[in-house]
Amino acid sequence: DIENAYKKTFLPEMSEKCEVLQYSAREAQDSKKVVEDIEYLKFDKGPWLKQDNRTLYHLRLLVQDKFEVLNYTSIPIFLPEVTIGAHQTDRVLHQFREVPADQEHRWVSLLSSPLGSLFSEWSVCGEDS
């Protein structure tokens, strides 16, 4: 049963790593209560402890742009061989930002190839893929 697995396995595991706010359908409609509960959170779990002002600033800039957020969540057609998820896209973006300027030509040639979207993992350290 999906509901029992969600309540007995997933939620307890998530509550160890992050803050979990759980509401009934009626309580979730009261947006003032939800906002108040979020304001009372201490944020002593999860990725918030690892963030500094610069990364929070960039995260805020990202989520302010609704179209940029949609780029991470909307995929026109789901093809498992071609589709790249949000976490994978974020990981590749961070890898790209760490590439020295003299190796950027490898990324450009790879991404501009017809099969560029099929590559889920590739080297950024100077070894050939």
Structure report:
The structure is a single chain. The protein is an all-alpha fold and 129 residues long. It has a domain at 1-45. Helices cover 55% and strands 0% of the residues. It has helices at 2-17, 25-28, 31-40, 53-64, 66-73, 86-97, 104-112. It starts with a helix and ends in a 17-residue tail after the last helix. The relative contact order is 0.05. This is NADH:ubiquinone oxidoreductase subunit A10.
In short:
It contains seven helices and no strands.
- Please summarize the sheet with the most strands: none
Rg, Cα atoms, Å: 20 Å
Q: Supply the helix-strand structural class.
A: mainly alpha
**Low-pLDDT regions:** 117-129
Please give the oligomerization state of what you see: single chain
Average pLDDT figure? 74
Q: Which percent range describes the beta-strand content?
A: under 5%
Euclidean distance between termini CA atoms: 43 Å
Protein name: NADH:ubiquinone oxidoreductase subunit A10
